[in-house]
Amino acid sequence: MTNDTSCPSEFALERWRFGELAASSEEAPLVAHVDGCPACRRRQAELAEADSLPPDSDAIWSRALAGGFVGRQSPGLRWMPHPLRWVAAATLGVAFAATLVGALRRPNPDALTKGEAWQLGVIAKARDGSLRRLDPGAPLSPGDRLRFEVFTNRPRADIALVMLDSAGKVSRLAPTAERSLSIPGGRKVLLDEAVELDGALGSERIVLVACDRSMEVSDVVASARRALAAAHGDPRQVDSLGTGCHEETFWITKVIK
Predict the structure, then answer these.
(1) Which of 127, 144, 158, 250 has the fewest CB atoms lying closer than 10 Å?
(2) 195 within 8 A of 55, measured Cβ to Cβ
(3) What is the domain partition of the chain in residue ranges?
(4) How many helices (H) and strands (E) does the chain have?
(5) For 30-68, what is each residue's pLDDT tens digit?
(6) How many CA atoms, within 13 angstroms, populate the side-chain half-sphere of residue 62?
(7) Contact, 210 vs 158, CB < 8 A?
(8) How far is it, in rounded angstroms, from Cα 153 to Cα 119?
(9) What is 181-196 written as a DSSP string?
């Protein structure tokens, strides 16, 4: 290959760097391309530098469960334990489950531009070190840690994450900076921030707010508080935070296992 050939994806470069392509039919042409492509060699060096570990290491949570290349963001941001005030609640019953399903199916009032896609993934690390990618409504335990993975096919977007609880409280999840985090489109991005769950039980609503402009994270938190207050403290009844931006919801449930 020569460097005028389309470059391999970051996922392919990462698989090669971690030895997953050794002795495969993909390895030789990829090596030949990178040898003749300064841009790919430079990108490979950047990927290696970004991996000088933390946040919360364990090989960055096993490369976020090997869910494709995970781009690290904001080298100045590091993992910080973020205990949340979880609300004590009864175990999720049939009536609540029906309400929850309805909320998950409720259309987002901020309509997507045609062809636009967003994904909010949540990865959990249990106290025993085991990792899993969560489904919405997944049961979690005190001491579990969560990390967040975002994908968009927009060229670039600004994001912030908050959490709403049934006690009428809003917790800021990411970023830790005052302004929203700008992420590139076209690949999954693992955020540096994580949260550690405390001993209270209940259900929580994680909301990703995504805009084509920079935002004050405090404004997003304020919008979430107003929306939750208008819903009488019930996050299941919040249709939108009213930010004027796209919003994605992910539910989790805190139980004793």
Answers:
(1) 127
(2) no
(3) 10-52, 94-254
(4) 6, 11
(5) 888 888 898 888 877 766 655 544 444 455 454 545 444
(6) 11
(7) yes
(8) 10
(9) EEEESSS-EEEEEEEE
**pLDDT tens digits for 141-180?**
888 999 999 999 998 999 999 999 877 889 999 998 999 9
Q: How many residues does the chain have?
A: 257
Q: How confident is the model at residue 232 (pLDDT cuts 50, 70, 90)?
A: very high
Tokens of 151: 């994908």
Cβ atoms of residues 138 and 108 within 8 Å? no
How many CB atoms within 10 Å of residue 122? 20
Backbone φ and ψ of 97, nearest 5°: -60, -40
Going by C-beta distance under 8 Å and a sequence separation of 6 or more, which residues neighbour residue 255? 91, 92, 139, 140, 141, 201
Residue keyed to tokens 């979880």: 86
DSSP secondary structure string for all residues of 135-172 = PTTEEE-TT-EEEEEEEESSSEEEEEEEEEETTS-EEE
Q: Alpha-carbon torsion 100, 252, 163, 178, what sign?
A: negative
Crossing angle for the helix pair 38-50 and 10-17, to the nearest 10 degrees: 70
Q: Check residue 180 and give left, alpha or beta (phi > 0: left; psi -120 to 50: alpha).
A: beta
How far is it, in rounded angstroms, from Cα 112 to Cα 54?
A: 35
